[in-house]
Amino acid sequence: MVIEERLEGEEVSILAFTDGYTVVPLPPAQDHKRIFDGDKGPNTGGMGAYAPAPIATPKIKEFVKVNILERAVNGLRRDGKGNN
Q1: How far apart are CA 74 and CA 81, in angstroms?
Q2: CA–CA distance from 41 to each of 8, 28, 36, 50, 79 (Å)?
Q3: 27, 52 contact by CB (below 8 A)
Q4: Residue pLDDT, tens place only, 22-69
Q5: Can you give the three-state secondary structure of 15-58, one letter per residue?
Q6: Are the C-beta atoms of 31 and 55 separated by less than 8 Å?
Q7: Less crowded by CB within 10 Å, the N or C end of the chain?
Q8: Burial of 16 (0-12, 13-18, 19+ CB in 10 A)
Q9: Domains recognised in the chain with CATH numbers
Q10: Which secondary structure element, helix H or strand E, spans residue 11, and what is its range?
C-alpha cells in the first residue's frame, strides 16, 4: 500500500500474526539503512535490523494495531479472503 510518494523521517515495521479474527503484533522493528555510522554512505537495503524499535511508542503501536492491522484483517474476512 502506498500512502505517500515520499515521506521524510524514520520508519518502523510492525508485522502481526492473525487467525483471521485476532491480531497479535510482533515487536516493532527498524532496519539499518546506511552502511556507515551517522547515517552515512550508500543504502544497504536493510542488512540488519533490531527490535523492539524504541521509536514505536505504546501510542503508535496501539494506533497501528487498531487502525491498520485489525481493519485490514476485518476487511479481508468481510471480502471472503480470510478464514471462514
Answers
A1: 10
A2: 18, 25, 6, 20, 44
A3: yes
A4: 999 999 998 877 778 877 887 776 667 889 999 999 999 999 999 999
A5: CEEECCCCEEECCCEEECCEEECCCEEEECCCCCEECCCCCCCH
A6: no
A7: N
A8: middle
A9: 16-78 (3.30.470.20)
A10: none
Q: Which amino acid is at 3?
A: I
Question: And the C-alpha cell for 13?
Answer: 515495521
CA atoms of 37 and 32, how far apart (whole Å): 10
Q: Give the containing element (helix H, strand E) for 83.
A: none
Place 84 in a pLDDT band, splitting at 50, 70 and 90: low
Measured CA to CA in angstroms, residue 46 lies from 13, 31, 41, 72, 78 at distances of 12, 5, 13, 26, 34
Q: Give residue for cell 527498524.
A: 30
Strand-pair category, 40-43 with 49-50: unpaired
